[in-house]
Amino acid sequence: MARHRPRQKLLEGRGPEEPGNAGYGEGPVRGLESHRVKTTGRRPRPGASRLKAIGRTFEPMNATENPSPTAGLVVIGNEILSGKIQDANSPFLCRELRFLGVDLQRIVTIPDERDLIARSVREFSEAFTWVFTSGGIGPTHDDITVEAIAAGFGVKAVIHPRMEEALRTHYQGRLTEDHLRMAMLPEGSELVEVPELAYPQILFRNIFILPGVPELFRFKFNAIKERFASHPIALRELFLRADEGAIAAALRETADRFPDVLIGSYPNFRRDEYSVKITVEAREAPIVEAAFAELQDRLGALSIEVVKVT
């Protein structure tokens, strides 16, 4: 597989009820009203939801303000590194952010170690537009993500009244002190609330702190994902019957001519329809079309068989 980056790196709807017990309890919070946002004179982008956080209102990102948003994902959990649990959140977030036009530039998987979590999340927060964390926000002794993030930014972990209310409403007579650990958030955190969420989503600075259970992770992200919508990334694809070595020069020469375009080559050993898939992508559609046309000309000169073009 080849990834050609000659220069600068380029930068559904309502989910099911919240299942599982990793994150915020065993199910949806009952008896809590959804918090809808009052209009403020600004209209959200058509088709996008408004998100409310205590203290301010979040609207979908204006793509003209940041046409090339970036992101990083910190996956936290000994169970991932030991192979007990397979990470499903990373590939999900890769696909979703790509569709939204956000360049996910780095993923790191780390154990449940306070200093390492604190250092990694702080580094990501300084490097990327958005940071997502996965895992370590439940009631047990190894759920230390929140306190580690707080330490990394030099703030305290404090009880958030809204989260405490949610926990008390859900657990009622079954509430324990360990359950209340889940109401401890980094000081200065906000809770993003949308009608689809039974539990509010934690936002600290530019960091969205998400549960590790895949169903919960997907549900919470889907409820807020319109917040991250930006300029879509233009993509063209070629499916060839060819050896990668035979087309490497054509790929390299095209990449050199179009340094802002990302050209990828992916061999396929499992199917008879094609042997290599080529992708050409960038932020601007016209430059993608120009690079794609030139690459097709170069491959045509080599008499390479093209199976499909998309």
Number of strands: 15
Strand content: 15-25%
How many helices? The count is 9
State the helicity in percent bands.
25-40%
Structural class: alpha+beta
| Coarse morphology | elongated
Largest sheet: 8 strands, mixed
Name given to the CATH architecture of the largest domain = 3-Layer(aba) Sandwich
Strand arrangement across the biggest beta sheet: 3-2-9-10-11-6-4-5
Computed CA radius of gyration, to the nearest angstrom? 22 Å
What's the domain count?
Answer: 2
By CATH reckoning, the class of the largest domain would read: Alpha Beta
Mean pLDDT: 82
CATH topology of the largest domain: Molybdenum Cofactor Biosythetic Enzyme, Chain A
The first-to-last residue Cα distance is 20 Å
SSE string, helix = H, strand = E?
EEEEHHEHEHEHHEEEEHEHEEHE
Can you describe this structure?
The chain is α+β, with helices and mostly antiparallel strands and 310 residues long. It folds into 2 domains: 9-228, Molybdenum Cofactor Biosythetic Enzyme, Chain A, CATH 3.40.980; 234-309, Alpha-Beta Plaits (2-Layer Sandwich). The chain is built from 9 helices and 15 strands. It has helices at residues 78-81, 89-100, 114-127, 145-152, 161-171, 177-180, 214-224, 244-257, 285-301; strands spanning 2-4, 51-53, 56-58, 70-76, 103-110, 130-134, 157-159, 184-186, 190-193, 201-204, 207-210, 234-241, 262-267, 276-282, 305-309. The strands form 3 sheets. Strands 3-2-9-10-11-6-4-5 form an 8-stranded mixed beta sheet, with helices on both faces. It has a 5-stranded antiparallel beta sheet with strand order 1-13-14-12-15, covered by helices on one side. Strands 7-8 form a two-stranded antiparallel sheet. Strand 2 and strand 3 form a beta hairpin. Helix 3 (114-127) packs across helix 4 (145-152) and helix 8 crosses helix 9 (285-301). The radius of gyration is 22 Å and the shape is elongated. Mean pLDDT is 82; it is low at 4-50.
